[in-house]
Amino acid sequence: MHGSTHLPDAPDYGLDGLPVRRGKVREVYDLGDRVLLVASDRISAFDWVLPTVVPDKGRVLTQISVFWFQLLADRLGIAHHLLETEVERMGLPASADLAALAGRTMLCRKTSVVPFECVVRGYLSGSGWKEYQKDQAVCGVALPPGLVESDRLPEPIFTPATKAELGDHDENVSYERMANDLGAGLAEQLRRLSLEVYQTGADAALDKGMILADTKFEFGLLEGSTDPILIDEALTPDSSRYWPADRHKPGGPQPSFDKQYVRDWLLASDWDRTSEPPALPADVVARTRAKYVEAFEALTGAGFGWG
């Protein structure tokens, strides 16, 4: 299984005494009724975690999530898991390296995670474009004939996916499958919330000159509650596809605010995608970092405060 045994060593945050679960790009520390999400600078591509980190990537993504959690709560009243972002106020052990954790750490409520990715697509791209070419539908949602890659859809569509184990692909599934597994009530709540959050995010991004082509959300349930809340990351370039609005040209792939430099370099290399991936050159790392920072500054209107 790709990536599961190939994670680079975790940075030493001084939290060795806490139970931890490692994901592809994050450490999740268990604090009892709360969790500590620490976004590393690791980067993944083609289901592999690469051996080279992108400096400040974890801070960029965390700060983008914080921006969106606050905006969504203000505009929609959306409940989310974020409790605190200032590491000095998190009650961490004395051994914690606060400087290393600053900017990349969120103290969050612990939830029971809904085992589906809640994907919303406003444009036809990625796996959605591949599915459309086969049967003029995405995850069972029929679409009009004659659409081309990167076209705007008549209206955003909700296309759930199963959550994969580390190193595997998420699998697109029908809404009916999700409703069957979760129950009709919860599935409908998730669909409504996802479409609402996507539209709010897309409108806000467009005001900043960026198209939010698609995104995926995760939701969780607090103990004793049946109402899902937004968890994980929110509308970051790792969970979303952003394009510059003034360069949108349907009919092919679009320039994007994510790790496209990394993917392009790997595709042009002689790496076979079945063995350990190669280290990234310094210029690819620098351009990738710059693209993430550009996304943060464009979306938030603020300067990036690290590096």
Automatic annotation (TrEMBL):
<keyword id="KW-0547">Nucleotide-binding</keyword>
<protein>
    <recommendedName>
        <fullName>Phosphoribosylaminoimidazole-succinocarboxamide synthase</fullName>
        <ecNumber>6.3.2.6</ecNumber>
    </recommendedName>
</protein>
<keyword id="KW-0436">Ligase</keyword>
<dbReference type="InterPro" id="IPR018236">
    <property type="entry name" value="SAICAR_synthetase_CS"/>
</dbReference>
<dbReference type="GO" id="GO:0004639">
    <property type="term" value="F:phosphoribosylaminoimidazolesuccinocarboxamide synthase activity"/>
</dbReference>
<dbReference type="Pfam" id="PF01259">
    <property type="entry name" value="SAICAR_synt"/>
</dbReference>
<feature type="domain" description="SAICAR synthetase/ADE2 N-terminal">
    <location>
        <begin position="21"/>
        <end position="275"/>
    </location>
</feature>
<comment type="pathway">
    <text>Purine metabolism; IMP biosynthesis via de novo pathway; 5-amino-1-(5-phospho-D-ribosyl)imidazole-4-carboxamide from 5-amino-1-(5-phospho-D-ribosyl)imidazole-4-carboxylate: step 1/2.</text>
</comment>
<keyword id="KW-0658">Purine biosynthesis</keyword>
<dbReference type="GO" id="GO:0006189">
    <property type="term" value="P:'de novo' IMP biosynthetic process"/>
</dbReference>
<dbReference type="GO" id="GO:0005737">
    <property type="term" value="C:cytoplasm"/>
</dbReference>
<keyword id="KW-0067">ATP-binding</keyword>
<dbReference type="GO" id="GO:0005524">
    <property type="term" value="F:ATP binding"/>
</dbReference>
<comment type="similarity">
    <text>Belongs to the SAICAR synthetase family.</text>
</comment>
<dbReference type="InterPro" id="IPR001636">
    <property type="entry name" value="SAICAR_synth"/>
</dbReference>
<dbReference type="InterPro" id="IPR028923">
    <property type="entry name" value="SAICAR_synt/ADE2_N"/>
</dbReference>
